[in-house]
Design goal:
154 residues, alpha+beta, Aminopeptidase, 6-stranded mixed sheet, 5 helices, 34% helix, EC 2.3.-.-, GNAT_dom
Amino acid sequence: MTEADLDGAALVHQATFVRQQSSKDWLQCNLNAAPRFLNFVAEKEGEIIGYIIWVQKSGFRPEAVLELEQLAVLPSAQGQGLGKKLILDSLPQVKQKLAEQGSTLKHVLVTTRADNFAQKLYQSTLGAEVETTISNLYSADEVLMIARNVGERI
């Protein structure tokens, strides 16, 4: 993701996370926080139809723990495998960025609503498993999922 992508990514954010506000400001903050935040977009015919944000947790470590902070796909493009493609296509780039700072990928954390169908995506693509449920965190119950030793597998 670059500055030029912010307007398009903000439209994806607004359409996907309808309870959230200030989409462009939110994404600008994430973009400004590189290399801690690693941001990628998916385009189709020059239009941004999805994005993914990875975050390095708890400092720059030799074995990095990442959070899949946010994955968004336009509702009209959902169900076509784009979420999986965003994960799998961005991970090698993330691993390269980590290698440049002397790190390897260890684990990936994901939080999502307990009723979000994306849990299946995170389980099948990353091998993430539900570790705990956090009651009434944002708009509903959230689950914390962890994919262990991802760097060795993907």
